[in-house]
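Review form for a predicted model. The reviewer records the input and the model, then writes brief findings.
Reviewer: anonymous (R2)
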Amino acid sequence: MSEDDDFSEYVAARWTGLVRSAVLLGCSRPEAEDLVQTALERCLLKWDKVRVAEDRNAYVHRILINLFISARRRKWTGERPTAVLPDRTSLDETIGVDDSDAVMRALDRLTREQRAAVVLRYYAHLSEQQMASVLGVASGTVKSRLARALKTLAEDPNLAELRGI
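Model under review:
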């Protein structure tokens, strides 16, 4: 009997039991069939070694278990099937990255004090008195820092496209 015939005979005899073992390990039926197929592919590549093993079934099951553990250990980030497809395409997310980059470049042109004033006023929504208290400066200083920051941002070429200019 040739090696190919011996392997084909083994697969025909053991396929159902191997798939059942994979299902009992926790795979769905299609996953179990894929797992068994992968295990048998590995066995075929080393069939001369598998064929002379003391307990061929134990050898194949060991490969199956090792593949199962490896598959569960890896984080899979591929596609997932879904019953319902979305009606709309998603937005181009690179636009958000470009916008964020433009804003960060513009903020980088501000001094530390100006940047703090902009963040406190427009992100934290603090009043001028609250900002003065947080920054430890007079209310007039807060106003001048904010005015200079806004002037710098208005003239910034990185933000021109966001403003539609």
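Findings: Residues 3-25 form the longest helix (23 residues).
Further findings: The helical segments are 3-25, 29-45, 47-51, 56-73, 94-108, 112-123, 128-135, 139-155.
Recommendation: see findings above.
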